[in-house]
Amino acid sequence: xxxxxxxxxxxxxxxxxxxxxxxxxxxxxxxxxxxxxxxxxxxxxxxxxxxxxxxxxxxxxxxxxxxxxxxxxxxxxxxxxxxxxxxxxxxxxxxxxxxxxxxxxxxxxxxxxxxxxxxxxxxxxxxxxxxxxxxxxxxxxxxxxxx
Length: 147
Hints:
Low-confidence stretches: 10-27
């Protein structure tokens, strides 16, 4: 009887651990890919600014551990910028650590966000705050998956 109970508990544990691992892999797989920004809103102090995307392509690329983003203005090549780094994902809590950027004051900073995925739409929101740069703004960004 003790052996049957021990076997049952062991199988239950393996089943639970397997479900946890599958859930993590499934979350990572959902993010993997190339995403195009279709909406961006920034709230800073008392103002709300909606990004004009009519002449701009903003692309985010994610794999299991890294992200990269590129913003290209289609009429002015000098308005190009980008960045990259690593991210962590726990549930809907998504944290980007920016390792590669031309802006020294935000390099190696971690930005906490919340993400939601609805079909082929990724919604990222949160507070971007870097005290040493005087940055404190709330963002909402929406992306669609590029196939």
